[in-house]
Design goal:
Length: 290
């Protein structure tokens, strides 16, 4: 009797386990279907969104290029047209498809451009912000004049548009490009130093001599030999010399030599009276200037 009951209990337990297993599997299967369905819906929605984006914004060109704005100081209409031509942009181009990095490189290929920033201005414009290179001097190369920046960058051929009122650097002509740019660098360095001195704005020509010494010619034809190095002190000596010349009214030829340290040599006109260096400490007859 007990044996029979135990067998019945075992059968019931097996049936329960079987039913529970079937029930768990069914629930797991249904949940899996929901998950796969959700993934399918998300994927379909994403793909549909991507296709819609491509259709409306790329194929249909919702954002069409209508305007190119160029911003910067002292940029002429002619220069703006050149920058636009070099940018490779065209009307009704898709604003979103424009490669801004490539556009920046193309705009910067114009030699007058020093820095460039490019951005989109929705819904229909591209803005190009330009910083131009500044002319610092002019150089003679193969019998032509070229503008050059402070760093020695050759900007372009000199012309009436930007004028000729800049110092001219000469004495650079050589078959060796390395020597050419070494001399150019030396002349530009001197110009930067002298731009804050007593001869600022007076320089007409900077000549690099065969020994790499610097000779300066003012706009009025005065030749000043600076030689090699120690330029800051030599410019201070020149300032003192001009003060002395004006104080005692010496008439001199258009030549000053500052090649020697802390000394200045001038060619005095015939008939001028030259006083000793310590003239301030000695008695000067009142009729000396008669």
């Amino acid at each position: 009797m007990r044996l029979h009951k135990n067998k019945n209990n075992i059968r019931r337990k097996k049936n329960l386990i079987s039913k529970n297993s079937k029930s768990s599997f069914g629930q797991y299967f249904i949940k899996s279907l929901y998950v796969f369905a959700a993934i399918a819906i998300i994927f379909a929605a994403g793909y549909s969104g991507y296709k819609s984006y491509g259709y409306f914004f790329l194929n249909k060109k919702v954002f069409k290029l209508k305007k190119i704005e160029i911003i910067g100081k002292n940029i002429t209409d002619k220069e703006k047209n050149k920058i636009i031509a070099q940018s490779g942009l065209f009307k009704n181009e898709n604003l979103i498809n424009i490669n801004l990095k490539k556009l920046s490189r193309l705009a910067a290929s114009y030699r007058w451009v020093k820095n460039v920033t490019v951005y989109r201005k929705f819904p229909n414009a591209i803005v190009i912000v330009i910083k131009k290179r500044k002319i610092f001097a002019m150089v003679v190369y193969k019998n032509n004049l070229y503008y050059v920046s402070k760093t020695g960058y050759i900007i372009g051929k000199a012309g009436l548009h930007s004028g000729y009122g800049y110092p001219v650097i000469t004495g650079l002509n050589t078959g060796d490009s390395g020597v050419y740019f070494k001399k150019l660098k030396k002349a530009l360095s001197f110009l930067r130093i002298s731009s804050h001195s007593i001869i600022s704005g007076l320089t007409g020509e900077i000549h690099v001599e065969n020994d790499d010494g610097i000779a300066l010619y003012t706009r009025k034809g005065l030749c000043i030999k600076f030689g090699i190095g120690n330029y800051r002190n030599k410019l201070k000596t020149l300032k003192k010399l001009f003060l002395e010349i004006n104080a005692i009214h010496i008439r001199y030829k258009n030549y000053i030599n500052l090649e020697y340290k802390n000394e200045a040599v001038i060619k005095v006109n015939k008939g001028s009276r030259v006083l000793p260096a310590d003239y301030k400490h000695i008695y000067i007859p009142p009729d000396i200037w008669k």
